[in-house]
């Protein structure tokens, strides 16, 4: 990656990283896993930056990577680390709003793909068609989920 590409990549990531992290948390309900998913997406974006930068909608490309990374993690639970001690509480900088507990609880009750549809549609504001394209499903499926 040349210097101008790296500057462009860093600006792209800096502007969106907090949003990706919050979206990852909405999907997985674990700040530590959300950080891991965000890091995986940033790594994949870096590896494929020329393709991402040339895409019609780089934001949608990154959102798709995030959603697919989370779904991949759900499919492979045996790869996760199992800590022996409880992790520390998140710092005040990333504490969740007081009224988000109901939303988190409702999202936790959904199947992974249903949760992905809800987060893409209502958190990211994607259309039905964009959501279907990001998840690789037919356009009518998000409506049913």
TrEMBL record:
Domain RNA polymerase sigma-70 region residue range list: 13-79
Family classification: Belongs to the sigma-70 factor family. ECF subfamily.
Keywords annotated in UniProt: DNA-binding, Sigma factor, Transcription, Transcription regulation
PANTHER family for the chain: ECF RNA POLYMERASE SIGMA FACTOR SIGM (PTHR43133:SF50), RNA POLYMERASE ECF-TYPE SIGMA FACTO (PTHR43133)
Signal peptide span: none
Keyword Lipid metabolism: no
InterPro entries (UniProt xref): RNA_pol_sigma-70-like, RNA_pol_sigma-70_dom, RNA_pol_sigma70_r2, RNA_pol_sigma70_r4_t2, RNA_pol_sigma_r2, RNA_pol_sigma_r3/r4-like, WH-like_DNA-bd_sf
UniProt name for this protein: SigE family RNA polymerase sigma factor
Transcription recorded as keyword: yes
Origin species: Hamadaea flava
Domain RNA polymerase sigma factor 70 region 4 type: from-to ranges: 102-141
Stretch list, region Disordered: 76-97
């Amino acid at each position: 990656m040349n210097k101008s590409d790296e500057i462009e990549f860093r600006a792209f990531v800096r502007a969106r990283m907090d949003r990706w992290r919050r979206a990852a948390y909405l999907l997985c309900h674990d700040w530590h896993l959300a950080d891991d998913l965000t890091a995986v997406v940033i790594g994949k974006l870096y590896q494929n930056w020329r393709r991402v930068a040339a895409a019609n909608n780089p934001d949608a490309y990154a959102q798709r990577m995030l959603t697919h990374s989370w779904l991949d993690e759900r499919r492979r639970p045996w790869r996760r680390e199992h800590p022996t001690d409880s992790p520390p509480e998140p710092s005040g900088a990333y504490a969740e709003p007081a009224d988000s507990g109901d939303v988190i609880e409702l999202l936790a009750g959904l199947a992974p793909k249903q949760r992905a549809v809800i987060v893409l549609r209502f958190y990211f504001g994607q259309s039905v068609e964009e959501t279907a394209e990001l998840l690789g499903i037919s356009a009518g499926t998000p409506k049913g989920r």
